[in-house]
Batch of 2 targets.
Target 1
Amino acid sequence: MDLPEDLSRSGAAAAAKRKVEEDANSGPATKRSSNSSSEGVENNITAVTDEKKSIVQTTFQTLDGFKVDSILSNSADFKRIVVEGTVGDQKAVIILDKKPFTEDILSDLFSKKSELVHTFQNDIYGSYDCVLEPKLSAVKTTIVHPATKQHIDKYRIQPFYLVQETPEIYKSVTLPYLQSSSFDIQWVHNILAHKKEADRIIFEDPDPKTGFILLPDLKWDGETINNLYLVAIVHEKGIKSLRDLTAEHIPLLQKVLTEGSEAIQKKYGLTKSQLRVYIHYQPSYYHLHIHFTALSFNAPGISTEKSHLVSTVIGNIGLSPTYYQDSTLPFTVKKGDALCEKLLENGYKF
Amino acid sequence: MDLPEDLSRSGAAAAAKRKVEEDANSGPATKRSSNSSSEGVENNITAVTDEKKSIVQTTFQTLDGFKVDSILSNSADFKRIVVEGTVGDQKAVIILDKKPFTEDILSDLFSKKSELVHTFQNDIYGSYDCVLEPKLSAVKTTIVHPATKQHIDKYRIQPFYLVQETPEIYKSVTLPYLQSSSFDIQWVHNILAHKKEADRIIFEDPDPKTGFILLPDLKWDGETINNLYLVAIVHEKGIKSLRDLTAEHIPLLQKVLTEGSEAIQKKYGLTKSQLRVYIHYQPSYYHLHIHFTALSFNAPGISTEKSHLVSTVIGNIGLSPTYYQDSTLPFTVKKGDALCEKLLENGYKF
């Protein structure tokens, strides 16, 4: 949870990010020029004009000239730091990500150029600092510049809190909040109507009550089996979340689990026991969808306070048909989120 | 799940590892000597004699001379690779971990020495490769040498599978397996009897039926609140796991949740809503213990197929006193593990 992922598919920020990722390999519509907008940043930047938008982009040559204003997040697990900085008179967000090791560098890595400094020895365990060749230890760097307050806030890690949502809190706070918010799920309806992403569908059961469409999640490259991630979107409209599931939905859930797993095994080779099939609460959009990830994948949002295995959900509804209406359910909120504010207004104590 | 952690505190390998960690700052009981056991590894090693064990330890000066035999694991998330190698005629395990960014290096990092190579630009998003000063990009390296097959197997990532454990499978496979295995939990009894680690106890409720001891988990440094990790060990002996919990244990679980959270708030400042309080199934040792981690910490083993929030456990037992005897419970097994073999022998289909 050091590195919260934006799971939303609506939301302007997410859409912008998605666009960046999609365009990552298509090359920039930019052209080098000799203009320079440097102020107090000597010998560091090259100005580039974006012809389409007539704005001057800046290409930096070193990290010199950035004044560090604050650390927005720092993940010791994932080896990533995000910094808010100023360069000249403009704000920037700088994201530094250490790169994974790849197999193709091993022959360069196991060489005389990898110097070891011994730090301690205990029995057969030797501990060292190893300095690699510079080319083997480059850091993936993203510079958002110029950055607005919105960009900076998007990358700033916020404290978050566990909520124990009783049925009363759901009825008096969460449900009214959901009903008053205008969550745009037109893109879901486009998929269900085959208007968009039809070529991405892996499997469909067309039954309006118990059917669903299975397709790769946007975060997945569609190829790497270790990181397999698909999502099943149910045809029935009106099931907002886990809270709405009752005994009548057992056939739907059973179908998703069985047919979805079979379709994945057929296409990608992973068996049912190599899959994690689960529902988020709270979800990122309020139309029932079920996540399928490779069990080997440390996917975002699989922690116990957020994810509910479909097999367990079926078991719980089987035990008590109104389990998800009667139970206290956990979920997390970020400080400052609208739902967090609503809970505070209604006297919830964090 | 790319990086399975060894959560076990019993087991010889884990004990050895723990010893290494405990002794990390106390300095090795070794002495440099001019002996050399190098074979085919020129100018690379320094032999060191461990006086207590009369064995010759090797200190390596570079990564040259290691023949890479196989990759035991490679985590793109955590930027860690573990390699099985041969040096001379002996086996070794080499663990390379990229280091987290720390705040104290930022002034060195944002300097002319951090060279940027522009890879692409899309609107305000610039993507670069950044080559840092060598001292800023050292890699934490652990060399296990000489390594036995047992060491190599310990670090080898194995496929793992989700098991849906019905009550029948628990009774016919899991329980007999547990009862026939000699899990050594003397160290747990030492803690409960105040014979060991007494100075590490944060809180104790001495009640023999509903009491527990709360102390920092060995994996925690005891200081960094973002990674806070404590464990509550119950005084009552004989509760092997989640499967044994019934309505009679609600007072115990409620106490752990309330008193444990209060003790943590008092000592470390995190409130109840900033904590994740959960039980593992399967646990790493079969004496009931409850994990407390900072909600912000992406702790190992918090995924939905492994961890059960105590609040949800209390709710489930409240709904049905024998919920954990009657339900199908998920857990994961690694290929080759004893329990995995037992399940296969008994006809379980993965």
Target 2
Amino acid sequence: MITIAVDCMGGDVGPASTLPACAAFLDSHPEVRLLLVGRPEAMSAWPSVLQHPRCQVVPATEVVAMDDPVEVALRKKKDSSMRVAITQVKDGAAQAIVSAGNTGALMAIARYVLKTLDGIDRPAIATQMPNARGGATTVLDLGANVDCSPEHLLQFAVMGSALVQAVSGLASPSVGLLNVGEEVIKGSEVIKQAGVLLRRAAEAGDLNFHGNVEGDDIFKGTTDIVVCDGFVGNVALKASEGLASMIGAFIKEEFSRSIFTKMGALFAYPVLSAFKKRVDHRRYNGGALLGLRGLVFKSHGSADAFAFEHALARAYDAARNHLLESVRDRIAHAAPLMSAALQAQDAGAATSA
Amino acid sequence: MITIAVDCMGGDVGPASTLPACAAFLDSHPEVRLLLVGRPEAMSAWPSVLQHPRCQVVPATEVVAMDDPVEVALRKKKDSSMRVAITQVKDGAAQAIVSAGNTGALMAIARYVLKTLDGIDRPAIATQMPNARGGATTVLDLGANVDCSPEHLLQFAVMGSALVQAVSGLASPSVGLLNVGEEVIKGSEVIKQAGVLLRRAAEAGDLNFHGNVEGDDIFKGTTDIVVCDGFVGNVALKASEGLASMIGAFIKEEFSRSIFTKMGALFAYPVLSAFKKRVDHRRYNGGALLGLRGLVFKSHGSADAFAFEHALARAYDAARNHLLESVRDRIAHAAPLMSAALQAQDAGAATSA
């Protein structure tokens, strides 16, 4: 039995999407228990979920608002549903926690309550994007860290490898370093230095480093994992969401232009809905916060019940496949290599200076 | 009469796409002359273009390869078609130059031959992306500058404004600063400082600064211009190209799944082709290299004749609308504001220190 703590108050609509998602998830996963964390009066409209035999309500008096500054969420709202839910993981009452709340607050509270793993400076957010090979590319970081050092990017590569290995079962997932060209000489100083570290880690046999990749490689599926700083990852993710929405709107507009195009839509309907299902970003909802001493998953704030259910599934898969232990082991195993790489880099810098 | 110098040898296939594009462009633009720069023997298969009354062949003995290092292109190949074409602009023989060659080489040679405008440290590459409002968003920089300072981003904002004003005729195009959130406190240090500079420039009345925008705003068309460093811009552009290709491939695949879906495709054909036309990235081909003492346009290396023709049209529009003078005037006008903003920032830094 896996127990997941759910921040029922997070996201744009809170319980109106999280509780129906919990109900559906319980139906399809008989080996799951849920801790429903939130304000009981706000959740009372969904009695069947609250009274489900595999659910337990954990009351919390406060809610972190989507626009609360991190400081307010962290220092003023000590009884928030987000914090109480994370504490369930710290206390061992749950194996994972899922929240659709404010990303900055979730990261800060999770870091404060759970702490980072040994060898990790900064946790990262990893998510999946669909690719042309019919699978998904895991991309990290997606906004937790806007200014990254080469060492951070190396840590992201190791954690991303652990995630894909645990959840997808790939023994040696490939890692690409997001850059503006495939050549080693391309990119910013940070990226070039990160390339050196990643190559050294690969030579030591602890990372399957493919080399530099470009923006389009995320969707081509050139590598299983794409590593980048949080600024670039966030822009790439949001630009892709924006483009997908625009294309969706264009298709709708073109098909509703006249009676003839509407008839065309009727005939094309089965195909269009198959297509829509295939690129439905809700199916990829649920980012993993990696590098913490506990499993934390972030749902999109605007997630509906269908999307939130997918975030629950991701947390469940991670807990079931022992992601936490997998990340810890990989980091521990790579630790000597990481420091060796750092020392080699320092020596190289000293020689070239 | 506008004269455009064309690097006929640039791009993946060289004359096979540039010369048919020139022929089509001459047909639709009676007030244009073209200087066809390249190796005469490589261009001889298109005699009707070479002998066109409004064309003149300018021979060049060398070609910059797509994978030539910048140093080779700049120092070893002094009689390359790219360099000879750029020199036509310097010498006043042409008002603009278009090349589908190696971006790094084009930027380096253009900078060396033409020099930058007063007040500009680094030229930027600007291109248009289609948006949901039915127009296009101008994004810069797209890869010329991977490490940018706040001052560079301010210069990009001013140059982008000049471009959109000259080519689209908008009196006061709006500028968004690409960031990971709309709030002023978000983002990397460079972006936060750039936000301060852009707000000061806007207060001085020389820039219509909207504020921070996110990746999806490029495609929403929230602002006319989106400013970012070349690393982020390049990743956003390529990720979007990758996603668009994937979606195109998915649609094709879904429609060819069975005899029934193929029939659906038949009925949906007029709509699908209208849609395809609408998002055809070839129609947006042609990036402007801004900040140089001459008009330089970069076509995608893989451009076919249809795409290259659009790059020619962009160069023509820019020359006809006096883009060079417009950028020069805007930069000159903003120069006191830019230095005032810098001084104010320095003073602020001193006060807060």
